[in-house]
Design the sequence.
């Protein structure tokens, strides 16, 4: 290689679920990255080419392995860590071996929210390896940190910041996801009280990062949940939602300061509009509202046809992690938050797309419809995680945003849906 040409950053992909495989595809196409290895836990994936796992249609010569020792020993610069469940021993091994870690796991958004002993272990591993770790994704991450910090750059007084996430799953033909995981179609008493606490643990740390960056640290995180019931029997793509069962879920995560709510994340997920609640539902996506001396109301809608949402949604979580690699690589050792890093900028330069891909994108722009199907940015990942958990209990690879946890995928969104389900949703639910 010409000495004037920068060496590509060598990347390990750790886990190839819904989000991980999309990240892998992005690494293979990235002009500044080089794939060094792929770690999997599903026996069916061992020995398969990375291009096959990524769905890229290419042969890379890099074969997936379930040998963690071999991956840790590789001459690589960064690990994209995207498993269903976080293993702090794995993370510390990677960091101590000299590999920076970029993850869609939610545990690492806000260092002070980690258990003190865990934080100490991770920071020690960073010191030993001269490495850093950063958590990101779509929700939490992009929508709870990156966007609010940009919008508040024109503020001198902030009275309130609200972030709404909207998802209408009426056309989502995923019965396991909607009924078994998210709990639609169940009686209210069957859902229990775990969901609000689960989302608070997933989003609270990210909200703290934003508030502290603004010099307005939060005193506490509070969570409330409201359920809406179907007013009649409704047939949706996934099946029948009976009258009187859960057809809407609204969870509010409030960041409190001086006794009042300063910052709020509110997840609004429905599977039909025939509900007994007067919610101001909007197109699938996000809405950010800022009250203060420079009020703003910003809407971000997912402009993808419903039938193609599963194809595109993993990118909302995976791509930000891939795009953050260079910044994390250049960061000082330690657990690095969004505030510690420069703005994440995508390097798109020399990875041309095919005529077929260009035609597909052109078709998307022309089709233009809002995706009523958007999965709480982690829903797609959730479905895969649920299936993987059932079929391969040893396969902890994951994918969510929608859902993209403290065990929740920091990335879950109905953009990462898995996150909303509770103890068993460990991923990026993240997802994400």
Sequence:
């Amino acid at each position: 290689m010409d000495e004037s040409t920068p060496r590509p950053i060598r990347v390990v992909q750790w886990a190839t679920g819904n989000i991980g495989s999309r990240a892998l595809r992005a690494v293979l196409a990235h002009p500044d990255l080089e794939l060094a290895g792929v770690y999997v836990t599903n026996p069916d994936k061992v020995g398969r080419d990375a291009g096959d796992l990524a769905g890229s249609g290419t042969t890379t010569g890099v074969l997936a392995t379930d040998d963690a020792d071999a991956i840790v020993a590789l001459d690589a610069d960064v690990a994209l860590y995207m498993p269903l469940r976080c293993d702090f021993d794995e993370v510390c091994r990677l960091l101590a071996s000299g590999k920076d870690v970029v993850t869609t796991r939610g545990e690492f958004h806000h260092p002070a929210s980690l258990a003190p002993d865990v934080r100490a272990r991770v920071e020690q591993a960073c010191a030993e390896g001269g490495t850093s770790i950063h958590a990101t994704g779509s929700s939490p991450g992009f929508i709870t940190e990156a966007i609010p910090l940009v919008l508040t750059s024109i503020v001198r007084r902030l009275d309130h910041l609200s972030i709404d996430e909207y998802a209408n799953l009426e056309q989502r033909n995923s019965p396991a996801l909607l009924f078994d995981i998210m709990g639609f179609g169940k009686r209210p008493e069957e859902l229990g009280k775990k969901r609000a606490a689960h989302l608070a643990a997933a989003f609270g740390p990210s909200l703290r990062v934003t508030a502290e960056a603004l010099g307005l640290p939060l005193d506490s995180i509070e969570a409330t949940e409201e359920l809406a019931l179907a007013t009649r029997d409704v047939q949706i793509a996934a099946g029948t939602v009976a009258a009187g069962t859960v057809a809407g879920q609204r969870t509010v995560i409030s960041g409190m300061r001086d006794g009042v709510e300063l910052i709020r994340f509110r997840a609004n997920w429905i599977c039909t509009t025939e509900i007994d609640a007067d919610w101001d539902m909007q197109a699938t996506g996000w809405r950010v509202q800022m009250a203060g001396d420079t009020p703003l109301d910003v809407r971000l809608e997912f402009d993808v046809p419903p039938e193609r949402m599963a194809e595109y949604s993993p990118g909302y979580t995976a791509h930000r992690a891939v795009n953050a690699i260079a910044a994390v690589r250049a960061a000082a050792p330690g657990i690095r938050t969004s505030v510690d890093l420069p703005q994440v900028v995508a390097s798109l330069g020399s990875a041309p797309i095919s005529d077929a891909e260009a035609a597909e994108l052109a078709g998307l722009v022309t089709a233009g419809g809002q995706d009523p199907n958007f999965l709480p940015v982690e829903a797609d990942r959730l479905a895969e995680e649920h299936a993987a958990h059932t079929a391969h209990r040893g396969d902890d690879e994951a994918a969510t945003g929608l859902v993209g946890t403290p065990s929740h995928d920091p990335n879950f969104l109905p953009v990462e849906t898995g996150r909303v389900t509770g103890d068993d949703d460990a991923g990026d639910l993240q997802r994400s």
Q: What stands out?
A: Residues 30 and 150 are 26 Å apart (CA to CA).
